Amino acid sequence: MKFDFALLLTALSAFTGLVWLVDSLFFRKSRALMVTEGEEIPEPALVDYSRSLFPVLFFVLILRSFLAEPFRIPSESMMPNLLVGDFILVNKYDYGLRLPVLNKKILKVGEPKRGDVVVFRYPGRDSEDPQKGTDYIKRVIGLPGDTIEVSDDQVSINGQKVAYAPAGVFVGKGGAALDDTGTDMLREDLPGRPHTIMDSPGSPFAPGTWVVPPGHYFAMGDNRDRSADSREWGFVPEGNLVGRAMVIWLNCEGWACSDGFDYSRIGDTIR
Fold first, then answer.
1. pLDDT tens sequence across 103-121
2. Distance from the CA of 234 to the CA of which of 33, 67, 143, 207 falls in 20 to 30 A?
3. N- to C-terminal Cα distance for the chain?
4. pLDDT digits (tens, 9 = 90+) for 183-232
5. Which residues contact 255 (CB under 8 A, 6 or more apart)?
6. Does residue 2 have an active-site annotation?
7. Is residue 1 predicted with pLDDT exceeding 60?
8. How many CB atoms lie within 10 A of CB 100?
9. What pLDDT, on a 0 to 100 scale, did the predictor assign at position 22?
10. Is the pLDDT of residue 266 over 60?
11. Domain boundaries, the chain
């Protein structure tokens, strides 16, 4: 079962705020009156904690719901641009403001552009998929109405082949990245958003053609042959979008970062 931090934060904010409000409306005045009559009644511990915690919890809730939310990269699917252990910030307002927990859009701001790196809730292969609702991160390749063709990692969009050029060899610095050292990289020239992808020999995916339906997106990982993405489980519904990946703010591996930090990645913009 996926841990829902947004639900926990919302519940704690609502609970502490309600305790503080009820005390302010019904009990604080009576305690103050008793003090004037010579009998002092201490403020209950629950009220004290709620009054202290509510502003902090509410601020964090607003910040991560409408402005930016942190995520950690758990897999190799977005190498070479995002590595296992990268901590990233995700822009929560570019694609519209959404209510926490419900993820219902309340204000339309913009839409994903081709080449955006987006975080979304995995739609699942079917209703029984145990990973359904897990946060995934991929690159938007196809927009609503596009026809996407992929054959041996060659992407075509609406009949036009995407251009590729050699971009050197990947060199991993540690952890899981070391296993991919020596893998060729390619520059993929998506219209308006060139970026680097991994070019492992031989694709495990069969050639395919997809027509992106309205309100959906076709997403792929930059580590093309090690990414479970729209080629395997289908399209990303607009309602599953969480936000656009912006910047790396930390990189470390191991439990509680026990394997050390890579300070060179801090501040890298995600393109």
1. 889 999 999 999 999 999 9
2. 67
3. 32
4. 999 999 998 899 999 998 877 888 999 999 999 999 999 999 999 999 99
5. none
6. no
7. no
8. 20
9. 94
10. yes
11. 5-65, 68-265
- C-alpha gyration radius of the chain: 24
3 state SS for the chain? CCCCHHHHHHHHHHHHHHHHHHHHHHHHHHHHHHHHCCCCCCCCHHHHHHHHHHHHHHHHHHHHHHCEEEEECCCCCCCCCCCCCEEEEEECCCCCEECCCCCCEEECCCCCCCCCEEEEECCCCCCCCCCCCCEEEEEEEECCCCEEEEECCEEEECCEECEEEEEEECCCCCHHHHHHCCCEEEEEEECCEEEEEECCCCCCCCCEEEECCCCEEEEECCEHHHCCCHHHHCCEEHHHEEEEEEEEEEEECCHHHCCCECHHHCCCECC
Contact 157, 141 (CB under 8 A): yes
Residue 50 annotated among the catalytic residues of the structure: no
Locate 86 and state its tokens.
């990268």
Q: Please give the C-alpha separations between residue 77 and each of 118, 152, 159, 231, in angstroms, as whole numbers.
A: 13, 17, 26, 13
Which candidate in 77, 92, 227, 230 is catalytic? 77
What pLDDT sits at residue 245? 98
Q: Mean per-residue pLDDT for 172-176?
A: 71
Q: What is 68-265's CATH number, 2.10.109.10, 2.60.120.280, 3.90.550.10, 3.90.45.10?
A: 2.10.109.10
What pLDDT was estimated at residue 175? 66
Which tokens is 37 given? 């009559």
